Input
Amino acid sequence: MDATTPSPSATRQPTAHVTRSRRSAAPRRVLAIGRAEFTLFWRNPTALLTALLMPIGMVVLLGPTLGNSLIGGRFTVFMVNTLALWSLLFVVYFTLTTVLVSRREEGMLQRMSTGEATSWEAVIGASLPTSVIAVVQILLGGIAASVAFAMPSVVNPLLPIVGILACLVVLIGLAAWTSSITSTVEGAQYSTMPLFMVLVFFSGTIPLSLLPDAVGRIAEATPMYAMSDLISIGLIGVGGAGDSTPVGFLGSWAVAGRSLIVLGLWAALAVWIARSRMRFTRRR
Output
């Protein structure tokens, strides 16, 4: 080998170094994209006030009506479940679908593939504002309900956190997939509606006791119901069906096992669907 010819290891080393540098800088690029998306959201005062005031407003409106029948912990469970359902579906699933369609049709996602940041980093960055807003809504509503209606000590705070975050991953993945079959921002209100209605119907808003057994079993295998179950078990030690004896911290993990598995499988499936179906080039 000629002395001036670099060895194969010498030519591979810089490439590996560049790859490691790009990966280590990925979180910084995602946060930068997320900050830009936050700035756009911050400039919309209507959306901002809705995100911050809706949780407390729901407690004020629903408290006098349901406070007597759902005392203390059960009212807090109801509030957190209601906020989690609507915040994740409206703020994350629907809003993120429209954002991704808009960014795709503007050519931003395609341009990312030729720059330092990748298209997937742009997707993750775009999901940060809606995710944070949804979590803040749920947190504010839960705190307001707990203070107003004397919530007892929480049985296992980890279960609601895991349930909400796992469902967040599911809906981000479903939003990415739905955006791939949506041509325009206006069309998102139609493309998201079928899945939106299915998730609401099987979320536990209709008690399982009122549903046929076969339909109830389907509901138990859906992500929104699993999240609702984890919230209920974590806050008061009783599952979403409400027909079991309250359990403590250690017992809550055993009771929550099925819902944890269901959400884990849904999260993996949603990520796989998003990675295999997400569209980054313009449809028009």
Q: What stands out?
A: Residues 7-14 have pLDDT under 50 and may be disordered. The chain has one domain: 46-277. Residues 46-277 form one domain.
